[in-house]
UniProtKB/TrEMBL annotation:
InterPro entries: DUF4328. It comes from Lolliginicoccus lacisalsi. The chain crosses the membrane at residues 45-68, 89-114, 175-197, 209-231. The keyword Transmembrane helix applies. Residues 1-34 are annotated as: Disordered. Pfam families: DUF4328. It comes from the Bacteria. The keyword Transmembrane applies. This is DUF4328 domain-containing protein. Keywords: Membrane, Transmembrane, Transmembrane helix. Residues 75-233 form the DUF4328 domain.
């Protein structure tokens, strides 16, 4: 009896499951940015906050001068209540906004100083003898904030000056520090005196207090600008990028067919 062998199934015609693309399908790997601590993230906002704070204090000084002009005009003629109330609202709004930004700016600058010292000592292969938490708290809490930040930064500049006295960036850092530090102390003194002056009873004393408040705002703006220039110069000394650079993707090469 003959057994019948089953016929083999015909082979299927090979075909593409999708439209072919003539290129490299692999996705280029993107470099993952290094994780940043909260202190590093806060330090990155220091230059931006300094610029905004300076602009706000300039605007607050102009608002005080406008109010003083209205006080002078009020000696000869009565002003509409809407104008007087609008001027007061503008002064209070700008003063409160500038104060809030100033607090945030001080915190960001203290974080930048701690991070700057960490990078500086790491680059030198040394260990910072001061604890980061102590540096941060002493840089934001009065009365330590009047002398501690200048001391922390002055230590680095002094060591760099002893090593290379011909470095232009280091010399400029020293000049900016000597300009910022007294201005920082004077700004604090004027801010306290301006707050105390506002409780005066006489009209002339209140008018003088408006001018003094405008002067205090100008000093605060100048202090913020000096701090911004100092940070930029220190970044130039250490070769740091002022702005955060976007990570670049590696190039992907594809096949090209000539016509």
């Amino acid at each position: 009896m003959r057994t019948v062998q089953p016929k083999p199934a015909p082979e299927r015609t090979p075909r593409y499951t999708r439209i072919p693309t003539w290129g490299l399908r692999q996705e280029p790997s993107r470099p993952e940015p290094a994780p940043r601590t909260r202190l590093q993230a806060l330090a990155g906002y220091a230059p931006l906050l300094l610029g905004f704070t300076a602009l706000l204090y300039v605007a607050a000084a102009l608002a005080e001068l406008i109010r003083y002009g209205m006080v002078l005009a009020n000696r000869d003629r009565l002003l509409a209540p809407v104008i007087a109330n609008g001027s007061d609202l503008l002064v209070v709004t700008l003063a409160c906004t500038a104060l809030l930004f100033a607090i945030g700016t001080v915190l960001a600058c203290a974080a930048w100083l701690v991070e700057h010292r960490r990078q500086w000592f790491a680059r030198e292969g040394l260990k910072d003898p001061r604890r980061p938490r102590v540096q941060f708290l002493a840089s934001v809490l009065p009365p330590f904030t009047l002398f501690y930040p200048g001391t922390l930064l002055g230590e680095l500049i002094h060591r760099e000056t002893e090593r290379d006295r011909e470095n232009h960036d280091v010399a400029a850092s020293a000049v900016l520090l000597r300009a910022w530090w007294p201005l920082w102390i004077v700004t604090w003194a004027c801010a306290i005196a301006s707050a105390a002056w506002r409780i005066a009873d006489t009209i002339q004393a209140q008018a003088n207090g408006i001018l003094f408040a405008a002067l205090a705002n100008v000093l605060a703006a100048g202090c913020a600008i000096a701090a911004l220039l100092l940070i930029r110069r220190r970044q130039a000394v250490q070769g740091e990028s002022v702005e955060t650079e976007r990570p670049r993707s590696p190039k992907r090469w594809i096949a090209s067919v000539s016509p």
